[in-house]
Write a structure and sequence with these properties.
three-stranded antiparallel β-sheet, alpha+beta, 63 residues, 3 strands
Length: 63
């Protein structure tokens, strides 16, 4: 997934924007502004992808 084309949905709850990625609904976060929400979603996406790559490398190596 191209990080420049991440698509998300969001709602407002108690003054916070709550969002999740459409392609990865397991990735959810919040922000006080839409800009902050987008930054947090991108950060969460990059963190999860990094973790998944490390786990995949362990499986391939057999560690």
């Amino acid at each position: 997934m191209n990080k420049n084309k991440l698509k998300y949905t969001y709602t407002m709850d108690d003054g916070w924007y709550i969002g999740k990625l459409i392609e990865r609904p397991d990735i959810m976060t919040q922000g006080e502004t839409l800009e902050e929400l987008e930054e947090n979603l991108l950060d969460a996406y990059e963190t999860i992808i990094d973790i998944e790559k490390k786990e995949l490398a362990k499986i391939k190596v057999g560690a």
